[in-house]
Write a structure and sequence with these properties.
The structure is a single chain. By secondary structure, this protein is of the alpha+beta class. It has 3 helices and 9 strands, in the order E-E-H-E-E-H-E-E-E-E-E-H. The protein folds into 2 domains: about 5-90, Beta-grasp domain (Ubiquitin-like (UB roll)); about 125-155, no CATH class. It has helices spanning about 20-30, 65-70, 135-140; strands at about 5-10, 15, 45-50, 55, 75, 80, 85-90, 105-115, 115-125. Strands 2-1-7-3-5 form a 5-stranded mixed sheet. A two-stranded antiparallel sheet has the order 4-6. The termini are far apart.
Length: about 160
């Protein structure tokens, strides 16, 4: 059974399917909610439950102790509503036009400073800040070609 989540102070609301967490449902509905780890560790997604009940999920007591639950806090990446809920959370303002996207890239270098750490140096496709004036120049080079445009040497992104 789906439940309705209302965000305060914005008043935005959305449906959460059974078994889905509040954070993912909010992101799927197009709202920019704060998050980072999505595993109940960083507490970036913490909100305050003003009305309703939630299943807090498998959050370790270090990251959401009973004293925080008593104050109404919940980690939205783990919390699943058991009823319609009202949650106080500060949505990210000015982020509505910015959406995550996939960009093709090439791995140029891999450093391994430790056995379980890898540092990747990526190369993004060439873009030009003046494509209408140098379409011939840019089109003639391979997408992964030289690091700058002949007409605009600072056009690397």
């Amino acid at each position: 059974m789906a439940h309705r989540v209302t965000l305060k102070p914005s008043g935005h609301s959305f449906e959460v399917s059974e078994g889905q967490n509040i954070l993912q449902a909010g992101l799927d509905a197009g709202f920019m909610l704060p998050y980072s780890c999505r595993t109940g560790v960083c507490r970036t997604c913490r909100g305050t439950l003003l009305e309703g009940r939630v299943d807090y999920g498998a959050v370790h007591p270090t990251y959401l102790p009973d004293s925080d639950k008593a104050k109404g806090y919940a980690l939205l990446c783990e919390a699943r509503p058991l009823s319609d809920v009202v949650v106080e959370v500060h949505e990210l303002a000015g982020m509505a036009s910015i959406r995550p996207r996939k960009i093709p890239c090439r791995v140029e270098k891999i450093e391994r400073p430790a056995p379980d750490v890898a540092i990747l140096q990526l190369r993004l496709p060439i873009t030009c800040s003046a494509p209408s004036s140098c379409a011939t120049c840019c089109a003639s080079k391979a997408r992964w070609g030289p690091s700058s445009c002949a007409r605009n040497p600072t056009s690397r992104s």
